[in-house]
């Protein structure tokens, strides 16, 4: 099993990236089940749980050299921590102002942002297949946005778009630091999110039910998925990785529809189908695989 994580073959990392996107897609469902906690409370307690989980792992792995592991992430680690931490703030805040479907498909703009950032920061060009897949995905986004602005507030849409931009900073940062272990960045991101929420909180009181859901998302979804994403970023270019992650945008509205009856419209379903087509194109189109690797 450990040999799998050291594989240079593209397909295992593509499959892992798709599995991580499936995990992330449950976040909206988890947060929609929170009963009374406010957005700052959710961000704060989820951030604390995320930081605790990842710090525990880093200490277990590096023992007395844990502090060195954090320092070794360098400026890329700091940039990635602020990107991921503030992205989670934007995502959770957006849920108070718009639908899960609207948020999910606005976040589908991430490949555009990450592709441009990766070119400027890493001189990492996007392969033709990735460009085509991104354009196809953005067609799905445009279908959604036309209706989305009517369904959700402008505030919620802007927060969701900010989440896409900040997530791109994180993706490019961990790709930039692929020579070192970037898992500590995820712990720092949790601290950034918790610190931001602390400044906005009016009360620390939260029910056990809501706290358990924050812990579930922070430990088993965010910590695990983002930690494994740092491994994927060593093997998959930033543009391609974000296209694969769009599976989250296609599945998130499905879960809240199946379990919470938050019904997506026909336009939402059309947009999701287009985005899913882009993911399949990126993941399994046979040509040009080696050209996308470093």
Description:
It is a single chain. Helix 6 (74-94) runs antiparallel to helix 10, helix 7 crosses helix 10 (154-176) and helix 14 (247-260) packs across helix 15. The protein has 294 residues and is mainly alpha-helical. The protein has one domain. The chain has 15 helices and no strands. The protein is globular and about 50 Å long. It has helices at residues 2-5, 10-24, 27-32, 39-62, 66-71, 74-94, 100-107, 110-122, 128-151, 154-176, 183-200, 208-232, 238-244, 247-260, 266-284. 77% of the residues lie in helices and 0% in strands. It starts with a helix and ends in a 10-residue tail after the last helix.
Q: What does the secondary structure layout of this molecule look like, with pairings?
A:
Blueprint: H1 2-5, H2 10-24, H3 27-32, H4 39-62, H5 66-71, H6 74-94, H7 100-107, H8 110-122, H9 128-151, H10 154-176, H11 183-200, H12 208-232, H13 238-244, H14 247-260, H15 266-284
Dominant shape: globular
How many strands appear in the DSSP assignment?
0
Helix content: over 70%
- Number of separate structural domains: 1
Poorly predicted parts: 288-294
Structural class category: mainly alpha
Biggest pleated-sheet summary:
none
What share of the residues does DSSP label as strand, in percent?
A: under 5%
Overall average pLDDT: 84
Round the Cα radius of gyration to an integer and report it.
18 Å
Q: Treating each run of at least 4 consecutive H or I residues as one helix, how many helices? A: 15
State the order of secondary-structure elements, H for helix, E for strand. Answer: HHHHHHHHHHHHHHH
Distance between the termini: 24 Å
